[in-house]
């Protein structure tokens, strides 16, 4: 198994390499010039050229790529064109809200969706099942920004239960921190609840038809035990896969939610950087995300081991 | 006689509307005394499994008894509350299922699965007491090294060991009644014999009543005290095992017993003089593993130097247990897998090294009929499409292909109207006929039947074996007949090969092998065949009755 993990980690390197090349090339192929944006509307071509020279954007493409990679290998993601700050520091400042929101969202989604899916499968064909399914269609179809503003309108403005938007770091107290995460979490988790509940239902429904479920009932076990110990654990592998995909999708999903709730996270950083053609920041964030994707996938593959003893790497 | 453990009185279970008959079980009355084994015998659809599940209260919600009672030590199971039923299940009655691989939870250690039934019922036991009891139970069913095996997962055990775990589980709370639903059907003959012996031994020691569901009169002869025969949801005959086996009263019982293939082969039939063989293999080998990336030393020799010859119009039986390599042999000859060594000569050409396009002309010459007709036919294609696809793939025009399909359906005893219907509209036996017609449509020289009658009821099995015989006669086909069942092999095969661990351990004319098996393993197979002991103990009566 250690060999498997080492192999997978080693395989990360070529993946990241390809990502680096593609991101670098795509950004340069996209229209828009950071120097022109930085210089402002009234700038003369000479001023723009001067900025380009200062940023090193007038060097040949290969040379730019070479020096970027060289610094990358030394742990330096470069300096933001827009704010003139190191990209690593920018990411470090912005990563906490994103991680916090992603964690609360996925935890909340799993805690709600898995029981919903199990109960829907157990009471297959009844109004409970149909209710869960209807709810999940709703969860899939309501856009994040609509849901977000509905929550703000209902819970924050009308009932005044929660703050409208903003972010407080966990270092300033857990209460205020979690208070400001409730609405974004409710908003962002809807689609993941729908996704995970549907998958859990289908997977548990499959497993409930298996012989060992009949064996468990023949032993005189309670239904709750049949479901939790025998059905759910066997149904876990597809559910875990979907949760993994969910975590990966979440990273892109936070962008809109962070805008709606004004959270100073990576999503906002990325949007601002794209608008300003802030190449080093975009490159840094995308590299970080792709690294996270690879690690999430590895973590998912390793969780299979825990749930299914037949899987061996 | 002491009070019965189980008394079923006038049990009637209606089937949902639009089923092919009104009742799954109708007016059934049965009794099981303490220490008694009652065998309930019947074919698919006889209602025997529904009865077993009704006793356990495990029927699907659409099936509900409409009349009658099921008394477990005097307590009516039909009227029991869900909580009471849970207490009875696993406590006073327990069940052993047919397929131990699927009946055990694949992701839990077997020790934990046995422990669970103790935990659910004997809640006064502490954790360590339960642990001791689990190990004692595992020793009772003769599982080796219980301490270690309790931590194993089902896929790490053999089929027989898994069924022993199931039995240990059933015995956990000393139930008064054990229901065994075809507990040995999925096992090899030698394993089956061991499990039957184990059940006898345990039952004698514990005085539990056993309701034993089976379709096999060989097993009945081996284990039953009394027999009840069911057909179409009704009881057609009941009596002591000796009486029913020796002098069955009901014509259906007589038919069932007669349909069990006799273990005495018929006299050798006259065969055409040896001509050029259709198939001969020389030193055929198939080794799995041992590739560049596999761990050192983890290779499996599935086939180890198999040499055989098969003439046109001849049936060669390949007999062996799971893991003997008989199915690998079939797959190699049909070239579904690549052999790692040796020759496969088909009409004189070595097809072992061929692949892809070079193999194409030979593919049609070898056709395979698989074990499970429910899964070997594509459910989304009509029978006509299934039969004509192969010939059309080899360039036969559509009209001619359908003409041939009609002729073949007639040959296998089906109506031409079957062409436009789908596989699910047919019974198991009919589907296997379709599979045979499909194979014949390619006009093969060699037919491989891989356990082709194992999934069928005995009466249907006899008909399909007849069909194989008539097809062989009419088309002068060579048949490679792979089976685990010696009785089936005796019925159809001219010659036999017995395989063990990828090697041929015995080979000869069927009658000669049966009369004087040379290899110890062949003798063990014969000894393990269900019903064999009864024959030795009581030859004149059992020869016809036990059908073995």
TrEMBL record, chain A:
Q: Tell me the PROSITE patterns matching this sequence.
A: ABC_TM1 (PS50928)
Q: Which SUPFAM superfamilies match?
A: MetI-like
Describe its membrane topology: Multi-pass membrane protein
- By its UniProt entry, which Pfam families does this protein fall under? BPD_transp_1 (PF00528), BPD_transp_1_N (PF19300)
Task: Give the chief site where it resides.
Answer: membrane
Give the UniProt keywords, A-Z.
Answer: Cell membrane, Membrane, Transmembrane, Transmembrane helix, Transport
Taxonomy, superkingdom:
Bacteria
Is the Transmembrane keyword given for this protein?
A: yes
Spans through the membrane: 9-30, 99-122, 134-157, 177-197, 235-261, 281-307
UniProt-annotated location(s):
Cell membrane
State the coiled-coil residue ranges: none
Would you identify the family this protein belongs to, as annotated? Belongs to the binding-protein-dependent transport system permease family.
In Swiss-Prot or TrEMBL terms, this protein is called Glutathione transport system permease protein GsiC
Native organism is: Methylobacterium isbiliense
Automatic annotation (TrEMBL), chain B:
Specify the ABC transporter domain's residue ranges: 6-257, 279-526
Listed InterPro entries: AAA+_ATPase, ABC_Ni/Peptide_Import, ABC_transporter-like_ATP-bd, ABC_transporter-like_CS, Oligopep_ABC_C, P-loop_NTPase
The alphabetical list of record keywords is: ATP-binding, Cell membrane, Membrane, Nucleotide-binding, Transport
Do you know which PROSITE patterns this protein is assigned to? ABC_TRANSPORTER_1 (PS00211), ABC_TRANSPORTER_2 (PS50893)
One example GO MF annotation: ATP binding
Membrane topology of this protein: Peripheral membrane protein
| SUPFAM superfamilies per UniProt | P-loop containing nucleoside triphosphate hydrolases
Q: Where in the cell is it found?
A: Cell inner membrane
Asked whether the UniProt record includes DNA repair among its keywords, one would answer no
**Per its UniProt entry, which superkingdom is the organism in?**
Bacteria
The family assignment reads:
Belongs to the ABC transporter superfamily.
Which NCBIfam families does the record associate with it?
Answer: PRK10419.1 (NF007739), PRK11308.1 (NF008453)
The name this protein carries in UniProt is Glutathione import ATP-binding protein GsiA
Organism encoding this protein:
Methylobacterium isbiliense
Q: Which classification does the entry list for the species?
A: Bacteria, Pseudomonadati, Pseudomonadota, Alphaproteobacteria, Hyphomicrobiales
Gene name for this UniProt entry: gsiA_3
């Amino acid at each position: 198994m250690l060999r498997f993990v080492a192999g997978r980690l080693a395989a990360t390197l070529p993946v990241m390499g390809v990502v680096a090349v593609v991101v670098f090339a795509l950004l340069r192929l996209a229209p828009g010039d950071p120097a022109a944006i930085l210089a402002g509307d009234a700038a003369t071509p000479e001023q723009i050229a001067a900025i380009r020279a200062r940023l090193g954007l007038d060097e040949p493409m290969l040379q730019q790529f070479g020096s970027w990679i060289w610094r990358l290998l030394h742990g330096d993601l470069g300096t933001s064109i827009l704010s003139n700050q190191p990209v690593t520091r920018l990411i470090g400042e912005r990563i906490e809200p994103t991680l916090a929101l992603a964690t609360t969202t996925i935890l909340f989604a799993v805690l709600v969706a898995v029981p919903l899916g199990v109960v829907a499968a157990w009471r297959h064909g009844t109004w409970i099942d149909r209710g869960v399914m209807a709810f999940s269609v709703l969860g899939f179809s309501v856009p994040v920004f609509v849901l977000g503003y509905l929550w703000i309108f209902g819970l924050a403005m009308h009932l005044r239960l929660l703050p409208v938007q903003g972010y407080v770091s966990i270092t300033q107290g857990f209460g205020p921190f979690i208070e400001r995460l409730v609405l974004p979490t409710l908003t962002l988790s809807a689609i993941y609840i729908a996704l995970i509940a549907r998958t859990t239902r289908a997977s548990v429904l499959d497993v409930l038809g298996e012989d060992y479920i009949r064996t468990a009932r023949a032993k005189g076990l309670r239904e709750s035990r049949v479901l939790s110990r025998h059905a759910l654990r066997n149904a876990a592998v597809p559910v875990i896969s979907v949760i993994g995909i969910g975590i990966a999708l979440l990273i892109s999903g936070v962008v809109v939610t962070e805008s709606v709730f004004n959270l100073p996270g990576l999503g906002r950083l990325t949007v601002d950087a794209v608008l300003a053609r802030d190449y080093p920041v975009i490159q840094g964030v995308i590299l970080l995300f792709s690294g996270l994707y690879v690690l999430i996938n590895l973590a998912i593959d390793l969780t299979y081991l825990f749930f299914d003893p037949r899987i061996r790497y | 006689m002491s009070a019965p453990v189980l008394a079923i009185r006038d049990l009637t279970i209606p089937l949902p509307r639009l089923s092919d008959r009104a009742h799954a079980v109708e007016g059934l009355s049965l009794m099981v005394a303490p220490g008694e084994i009652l065998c309930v015998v019947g074919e698919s659809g006889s209602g025997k499994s529904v009865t077993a599940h009704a006793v356990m209260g495990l029927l699907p919600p659409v099936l509900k008894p409409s009349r009658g009672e099921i008394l477990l030590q005097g307590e009516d199971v039909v009227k029991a509350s869900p909580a009471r039923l849970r207490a009875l299940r696993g406590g006073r009655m327990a069940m052993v299922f047919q397929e131990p691989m699927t009946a055990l939870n694949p992701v839990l250690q077997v020790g934990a699965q046995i422990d669970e039934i103790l935990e659910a019922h004997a809640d006064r036991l502490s954790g360590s007491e339960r642990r001791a009891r689990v190990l004692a139970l595992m020793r009772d069913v003769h599982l080796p090294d219980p301490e270690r095996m309790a931590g194993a997962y089902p896929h790490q055990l053999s089929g027989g060991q898994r069924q022993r775990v199931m039995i240990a589980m059933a015995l956990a709370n000393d139930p008064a009644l054990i229901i065994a639903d075809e507990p040995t059907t999925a096992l090899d003959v030698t394993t089956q014999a061991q499990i039957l012996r184990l059940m006898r031994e345990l039952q004698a020691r514990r005085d539990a009543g056993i309701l034993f569901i089976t379709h096999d009169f060989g097993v009945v002869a081996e284990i039953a005290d009394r027999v009840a025969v069911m057909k179409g949801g009704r009881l057609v005959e009941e009596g002591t095992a000796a009486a029913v086996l020796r002098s069955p009263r009901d014509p259906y019982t007589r038919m069932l017993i007669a349909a069990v293939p006799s273990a005495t082969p018929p006299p050798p039939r006259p065969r055409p003089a040896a001509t050029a063989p259709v198939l001969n293999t020389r030193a055929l080998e198939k080794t799995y593993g041992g590739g560049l990336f596999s761990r050192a030393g983890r290779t499996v020799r599935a086939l180890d130097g198999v040499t055989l010859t098969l003439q046109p119009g001849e049936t060669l039986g390949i007999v062996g247990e799971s893991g003997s390599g008989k199915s690998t042999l079939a797959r190699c000859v049909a070239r579904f897998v690549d052999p790692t060594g040796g020759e496969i000569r088909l009409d004189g050409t070595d097809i072992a090294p061929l692949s892809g396009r070079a193999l194409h002309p030979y593919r049609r010459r070898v056709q395979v009929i698989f074990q499970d007709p429910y899964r070997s036919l594509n459910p989304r294609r009509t029978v006509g499409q299934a039969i004509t696809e192969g010939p059309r793939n080899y360039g036969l025009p559509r009209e001619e292909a359908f003409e041939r399909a009609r002729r073949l359906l007639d040959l296998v005893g089906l109506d031409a109207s079957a062409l436009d219907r789908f596989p699910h509209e047919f019974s198991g036996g009919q589907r296997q006929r379709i599979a045979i017609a499909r194979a014949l449509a390619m006009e093969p020289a060699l037919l491989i039947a891989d356990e082709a009658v194992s999934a069928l009821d005995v009466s249907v099995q006899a008909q399909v074996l007849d069909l194989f015989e008539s097809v062989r006669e009419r088309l002068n086909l060579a048949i490679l007949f792979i089976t685990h069942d010696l009785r089936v092999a005796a019925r159809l095969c001219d010659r036999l090969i017995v395989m063990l661990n990828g090697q041929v351990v015995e080979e000869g004319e069927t009658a000669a092998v049966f009369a004087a098996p040379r290899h110890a393993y062949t003798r063990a197979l014969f000894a393990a065949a269900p019903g064999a002991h009864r024959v030795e103990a009581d030859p004149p009566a059992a020869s016809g009755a036990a059908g073995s």
